[in-house]
Amino acid sequence: MDSAALLVGLGLGVGVWLVGEGFLGAPPASENVRPRRRQFRALVKVRALLVEAGHPRIDPLLFLLTGVLVALGVGIAVSFLIPIPVLSVLAGVGMVGGALGYVAKQRDARYQRLQQAWPGLIDHVRAGIRSGSDVTMAIIALPDSLPPDIVKPVAEFRADIRRGMDTDTALGELAQRFANPVGDRICEVLRMAHEVGGTDLPGVLLQLQHSVRADIAVRQDAQAAQSWIRSTALLALAAPWIVLVVIGTREQTVAAYQTLEGTLILMVGALVSVVAYRMMRSLGELPPATRWLA
Length: 294
What we know:
The protein has helices spanning about 1-25, 40-50, 60-80, 85-130, 135-140, 150-160, 165-180, 180-195, 200-245, 250-255, 260-285. The chain is an all-alpha fold. It starts with a helix and ends in an 11-residue tail after the last helix. Mean pLDDT is about 80; it is low at about 1-10 and about 15-40.
């Protein structure tokens, strides 16, 4: 069991690195990263993922360390239940990937909530500006009946203005709190209007509102048409491993997969499963919208 635990630890270390590099990828060159952490690309992407999912106060390093510790516990538990060392490693790595996938799902859900809320926010800002308010007052006057994903950043914008922060900087902070491509566009339009003035702002906001609504309609239609691909991908990924767990309680199965050949079969099977899942998911996903101010 000591050798199995050692293998679990080594495998988890390599697996977490592969997950971080493969799933998270390299950060855009324009991201504002502190120099002492510039080499940790996974931390940069995890931080962006947490912010876009609505968890800006969670430290990405702590999140990853917690995920690794939980995955290590899961791997050791699996090694006791099914004494196949490589299966313990795969279970631990899968736990880390599952945690990242859960946060990504929260990010997507928050994106959908914001997409539904942007037209209403633009309506309120347009109404405030047309009634004679400037950009700052139009944002401050936004009602608390808007969704919480908008109300909380707006409340922090009000607090920034009360502390004496200039509107340009406060709008930049608001865009970072929204952490959304449409939020970036709205804040940038309002920032330019505040700097240079002009009477065309209501018309510009109206065009932006039409654009957001058209984007919502297109994405909803595409997601409804491609939802079966995502469901099929998840089923195809999980099915063989569920079968393996079911038959893994038999002594013959355990003995077969404890050999070198059995270990290689499981590792190749895991690699093929992940690659096939990512390919099927890529067919069922729309290109992500790009943030202006990330």
